[in-house]
Amino acid sequence: MALSRGLRCCARVFSWIPVLIITSVVLWSYYAYVFELCVFTISNTLEKVAYLLVFHVCFVMFSWTYWKAIFTPPATPCKKFQLSYSDKDRYEREERPDAQKQILVDIAKSLPIFTRATSGAIRFCDRCQVLKPDRSHHCSVCETCVLKMDHHCPWVNNCVGFSNYKFFLLFLSYSMVYCVFISASVFRFFINFWVGDLPNGPAKFHVLFLMFVALMFLVSLMFLLGYHCWLVVQNRSTLEAFSAPVFTTGPDRNGFNVGIRRNLQQVFGDNKRLWFLPICTRFYTPTLFLERYPPVGFILQPCSWRDTLLFLEVLYSNLVPGEIPSCRFYTPTLFLERYPPVGFTLQPCSWRDTLL
Asked: What are the tens digits of pLDDT across the range 56-102?
């Protein structure tokens, strides 16, 4: 027991090594660009100020997005998807696999779950003891189920999923902008040092190496960012690109594709002015959420006008004035549990109509 705990602690410590490598390279690039290039090499004051201004904008945006990608915790399934004590006891006492599957099916009837395992059974995590919401997967590194999990990235030491996918994409984007700007602004001095037009000194090594490192990272980032842009347009995660999600009608790689515009809104939010800032842009009050994104798998059918007024009364009575809920709690699955549509009847529809 103590040995396993020690190994886990060592693994957690070593998992920060890639982050420390990136941080060290970025800090060195800051020193090489600001001091060795701008302060000691460039003689034109106007050019020096212009380079430093643009560089610091790129540096701040890169650092901000990297910080958010690292320290934004992954969203996990809420308690509604955990087995109750009685259901867990009934599930563990049952020895027949078919009977266990039926128990999970009965429990899932009250939950908005539409994807299935490859075998057609309800997706269940034995480690977390939860019914997996749609698009969620268990991360063996984080040791938890993650909503809309894309992958576990060692370079940010975090799971990339519903809560931080936007930050991860912006991190890749601003990393590439950072590398492009360094490569473009350093190229002239790189050539001058290479042909010997500038005197040898400590700045020569830093400028030459800065050019090579920026180009090396730029090439790798171009492929990685291009791949994730394609995933966003298709509304797929990395895991779904390799293994198509399975619905009751069978596997479908385009099962979550609702058009390019809505696919982008699911990641970046409705306010396009905030798309390129590493802040949460999907701030939905319950009323706005119901209006724009009705719970997946259901259509909201108003009952009598009395029931509708009762629904609005209950909804507004549960709102805290001035409160803006955190965006990571508002997947369609979690919304149905946190804000049940009182005053409406839920009419199930096909998953294709729901996604549209």
From this structure: 999 999 999 999 999 999 999 988 898 888 888 888 888 888 888 89
pTM of the model: 0.78
**H or E, element range at 159:** strand 158-160
Instruction: List the beta bridge partners of residue 300.
Output: 346
Say if 250 falls within a structural domain.
no
Residues 6+ apart with CB under 8 A from 68: 164, 167, 170, 171, 278
Question: Among this protein's residues, is 153 annotated catalytic?
Answer: yes
Reading the block at residue 353, the tokens are 């109509």
How many other β-carbons are positioned within 10 Å of the β-carbon of residue 47? Answer: 12
Q: Domain total for the chain?
A: 2
pLDDT in tens, 181-208: 999 999 988 888 888 777 777 888 898 9
The structure tokens listed for 250 are 């069978």
Out of 145, 153, 179, 280, the active site residue is: 153
Residues spanned by the domain of 335: 283-356
User: In sequence order, which residues have a C-beta less than 8 Å from that of residue 342 and are 6 or more positions away?
Assistant: 310, 311, 314, 315
Please name the residue that has the structure tokens 């999907």. 282
269 within a domain of the structure (yes/no) = no
